[in-house]
Amino acid sequence: MNKPLWVIDTNVVLDMLHFDDVAARPLRLALEDGRVRCMVSDSMLAEWRRVLAYPEFGLDLAQQAKLFARYQALAIKTDAVGVDVGLPRCSDPDDQQFIELAAAVRAQGLVSKDRALIKLRRRCAPQFRILTPAEAVCWLDDSAA
Q: What is the DSSP letter of 20?
C-alpha cells in the first residue's frame, strides 16, 4: 500500500517540531512512524533554516541545527520543480512554493494553517487537498480505520 504523500508548510513544521503543539503532534508521530511521507524542496529547507533563526524563538545555533536536522530526517528532499501551468497563485508569494511542490510531486495533501493557502483549497482540489492540521489528523484517523 502506498503511503500518503504530503507537503507541510513551515508554520506547521514549527508547531510539530519546536512547539510540540498538541494539535500537530499526531502529524509528527505519523511522519516518525512512516504512515505518511513529507516532501521538501531546497527552498523550503532554506525557509526552515531562516525561521529557526528568528530571535523571537530564542534558539541558539545548536538548537537550530538540531531542529533543522530533525526535519531533514522526517522529510524526503526532492528536486522536483513545480510547473505552474494551471495552478492558482497564492496571495502570499512565499507560500507559492508549497502549492508548486504539492502539484509537482502529486501529493495527496498540503497541510497548512495559512489563510492565504486555505483560501485556495477549491482551486487546488483537482490536484491535491489543502488541509488544516486538524483536518490532516482526521484524514489520518479515517485512513487507519
A: -
pLDDT digits (tens, 9 = 90+) for 64-111: 999 999 999 999 999 876 666 678 889 998 999 999 999 999 999 999
- Topology (CATH level 3) of domain 5-144: Rossmann fold (3.40.50)
Sign of the CA dihedral with 126 first, then 130, 131, and 136 last: positive
How many other β-carbons are positioned within 10 Å of the β-carbon of residue 22?
8
Please, where are the H alpha helices in the chain?
10-17, 25-33, 42-52, 61-74, 96-104, 115-118, 121-124, 133-144
pTM of the predicted model, to two decimals? Answer: 0.93
Domain residue ranges of the chain, discontinuous segments joined by +? 5-144
